[in-house]
Amino acid sequence: NFRLTVFFIKMARPKVFFDVTISGKAAGRIVMELFSDIVPKTAENFRALCTGEKGIGQSGKPLHYKNSKFHRVIPNFMLQGGDFTRGNGTGGESIYGEKFADENFKEKHTSPGQLVRPLLHLINFQQGSMANAGPNTNGSQFFITTVKTEWLDGKHVVFGKVVEGMDVVKAVEAIGSQSGKTSKEAVIADCGQLA
Predict the structure, then answer these.
(1) What is the pLDDT of residues 144-163, one digit of tens each?
(2) Catalytic member of 77, 84, 100, 142
(3) Could you tell me which residue, 181 or 38, shows the higher pLDDT?
(4) Which CATH number goes with the domain that contains 73?
(5) Is 9 a member of any domain?
(6) Is 77 a catalytic residue?
(7) Is residue 7 part of a domain?
(8) Quick one: which of 2, 34, 104, 172 has the fewest CB in 10 Å?
(9) Is 143 designated active site?
(10) Which residues form the PPIase cyclophilin-type domain (predicted)?
């Protein structure tokens, strides 16, 4: 007789950051935890776009969020960014090529600060999602929610959350409008991986 014991080691979820400027002045750092155990492909795409480690994409632009802006900000909803190819919400590219499929919708839009893939989403301690133009059209755009957004469940992939810097998220939210146009420019001046 022998007993087989299996140990599961939970891998630490990656933490990434954005150092944000508003009108060229430092606004602070947003730290996000990525749900690599739930949506590994989506989390890896975002992580690699934070570090810039994948080099130049098919668009001829660096696969990197550094120096890209939050192009759409709607108070009491979300901040959208990640269009490093065009800067206006019509571009972007994933590390896998132009677009990739939705992984799953296990995580719900239950709190602010979530990272979401669009149709458009991001992260926050509160949650984040990938932004997209419909099912299976994920690229580099994302949004960070600033309130609960349950109506997005099943439409956008939640892939992380803001764990530090909600004050910075709120500062960016304050320059937004109902149309999404910002009164000042908010830029990801630097970004990378912490852990």
Answers:
(1) 989 888 877 777 778 899 99
(2) 77
(3) 181
(4) 2.40.100.10
(5) no
(6) yes
(7) no
(8) 2
(9) yes
(10) 17-193
